[in-house]
Design brief:
Layout (H helix, E strand, L loop, with lengths): L1 H5 L1 H18 L2 H21 L10 H31 L1 H6 L7 H27 L8 H28 L3 H6 L1 H6 L15 H8 L2 H14 L6 H27 L1
Helix pairs in contact: 2-6, 3-4, 3-6, 4-6, 4-7, 4-11, 6-7, 7-11, 7-12, 11-12
Organism: Acetobacterium paludosum
Subcellular location: Cell membrane; Membrane
Keywords: Cell membrane, Membrane, Transmembrane, Transmembrane helix, Transport
Length: about 260
């Protein structure tokens, strides 16, 4: 047991490398996850953008934070899918017969989710720059944005682990992501919440995506962030902790 704990990080590095090799051998997953959000961005900017009143002259700037969250929410479905395939293929049993830290099997999938989603985010930001996105933010605000996106990805990745361990079919492993992808549409990601009916507005203003979107939008535009960043961090950290606990319980039942 002591040797297993001692080599936790080296074991985790091996599992991360294994998961990343699977991703790079199937780049269509990253491409698919990236194309859909870019398609949404093109649609809303060049088709709907002229009819949407957001109080800003550059709708791409307003839209980008929500598009990034949609990309991440789409990407984590593949984390759940790959984990489900490992479970069904008996890979876990092989790993458990080796002297490795068992939790590193899950961490490999979670960390590869962080890396692959980061690649998607970079590609989408480049596409947004080509569409006219501009930011006056300095290095520190950009680092803050990167940290929020990383925490958001980490939180959803552990939710994906629960789905991957609990699903009964391949379709079920990825289906959990659909409601999460839909959340940005009922938030301030595309339109101000003031334009929504009272019930919808109440939900939109009190769900995690709105706080995260508002915090990222303020950071990128160089505006005061206010309490949104703390609410966003609280949501991300809270979801991560709860999802991690339930993921570990599901893992222990599975093994």
């Amino acid at each position: 047991m002591e040797a297993t704990k001692k080599h936790f990080f080296s074991d985790m590095n091996v599992m991360l490398g294994r998961s990343m090799r699977h991703i790079f051998r199937s780049m269509d997953t990253i491409i698919t996850v990236t194309i859909m959000p870019i398609g949404f961005m093109l649609l809303f900017v060049y088709v709907f953008g002229g009819a949407i009143q957001t109080g800003t002259d550059n709708y791409v700037n307003y839209l980008l934070p929500g598009i990034l969250l949609i990309a991440i929410a789409s990407g984590i479905s593949y984390t759940s899918y790959r984990l489900f395939i490992d479970v069904q293929g008996g890979i876990f049993e092989r790993f458990h017969s080796m002297p490795i830290a068992r939790s590193t099997v899950l961490w490999g999938h979670v960390l590869s989710s962080l890396v692959s989603n980061a690649l998607s985010v970079v590609v989408i930001i480049v596409a947004a720059l080509m569409m006219g996105f501009r930011s006056s933010a300095g290095v520190l605000p950009w680092l803050a944005v990167a940290s929020i996106l990383m925490l958001f990805t980490l939180a959803l990745s552990w939710v994906a682990v629960i789905a991957g361990l609990s699903a009964k079919s391949v379709d079920g492993a990825g289906a959990f992501a659909y409601p999460i992808v839909f959340l940005p549409f009922i938030s301030s990601a595309f339109v101000p919440t003031e334009s929504m009916p009272p019930i919808v507005r109440a939900f939109a203003e009190n769900q995690p995506v709105t706080a995260i979107v508002e915090a990222i939008r303020a950071l990128l535009s160089g505006q005061p962030v206010g309490n949104d960043i703390w609410i966003a961090l609280a949501w991300c950290i809270g979801i991560t902790i709860v999802a991690y606990i339930f993921a570990m319980r599901a893992y222990k039942k599975r093994v």
